Amino acid sequence: MKILVGVKRVIDHNVKIRIKADGTGAELENVKMSMNPFDEIALEEAVRLKEAGVASEVVVVSVGDNSSQETLRNALARGADKALLVETEQGATFGSLDIAKILQRLVAQLEPQLILLGKQAIDNDANQTGQMLAGLLACSQATFASALDVTDDGRITVTREIDGGLEVLSLALPAVVTADLRLNQPRYPSLPNIMKAKNKPLEIISLASMGFLPSKQLTTLNITEPKKRNTRCQWLENAAQLVAVLKEHKAI
């Protein structure tokens, strides 16, 4: 079974995001970039399936400029077999539907049986690409996966986290699955694997060679930071004072 994993290069989750002075986006100069955390989980699950002998090959793909090669090398160091970069112009942005259409073309070319994605990217929190890709492929899908098993009959069983608890689905392959936080704990790439990753294949194809034109359905007009809250902290000596303050503000 071949597995295709989509990864995205985003601002590291530990970095405090700063907005550009002109309001056109987040400041990226001299900012640490990393693999999207949910994509790390999707990649880890694919590598575990390969280590268990269920999957034969793990291919990782990213859509972005030349700097995305660093993210793909990191994915190779974590256990992926080969990487594919759909190279775009520096600073180019794409909506979820455009990314889904690009992945649709890659799926037709590579013919994976399982497509694993993070449930969302932490830069836009759209949570749309996996669902759109499954719709375009007209295949099975399971979102917010917290557990995944491959059954003897060639199907997969996915446990989903929903508002009411857990939902278990049995899916026919090919299928699209998006990973939630509790699916696994991603590994850190070891130094020997980082060195080996330098010799693993990383193919770069241009977006133009795919004959794809972005739809540009969404346009960012302006980005601003949230307004600062006027919060006030008051120290209280005992519960009686707390009750008095709550009564003063008509909270009780």
Describe what you observe in this structure:
The chain is α/β, with parallel strands linked by helices and 252 residues long. It has a single domain (2-248), classed as HUPs (Rossmann fold, 3-Layer(aba) Sandwich). Helices cover 26% and strands 26% of the residues. It has six helices and eleven strands. It has helices at 37-51, 68-77, 96-110, 129-137, 191-197, 239-248; strands at residues 2-6, 9-11, 33-35, 57-64, 82-87, 114-118, 140-150, 156-162, 165-171, 175-179, 202-206. The strands form two sheets. A nine-stranded mixed β-sheet has the order 9-8-7-10-6-1-4-5-11, sandwiched between helices. A two-stranded antiparallel ribbon has the order 2-3. Strand 7 and strand 8 (156-162) form a beta hairpin. Helix 2 packs across helix 5 (191-197). It is globular. The N and C termini lie far apart (61 Å). The mean pLDDT is 90.
